[in-house]
Predict the 3D structure of the following.
Amino acid sequence: MFCSSALGVNVSKPLPAVSVIKRGRSSRYGEYDYVKNKITIYYNICVDVRTMIKTIIHEYTHYTQNIEGLYFKMLEKYGYDAHPQEIEARMNEILYYSDCWNHIKNRIYV
């Protein structure tokens, strides 16, 4: 809910489903599947709560972007690190992490 209020919503799609699952070897913390409109977070790859929060913000950012039309064309042109949509997602991790953590930390049950 934090992401939808802070980052907005994609007017052409409902809020994405979110799954938190275990994954085998991977370097990815999570992913957004635009066809299924689903964010998947790999809890065993995210080594701490901070990484999990940043990953959710990152993948939610992709939900708000026009992934279908531009992402793969831009990936070919810029590569992953210089891809404008990845840069935006990484910037949002930095910009929104503290606010998100403050929003949820008192709601976490140990």
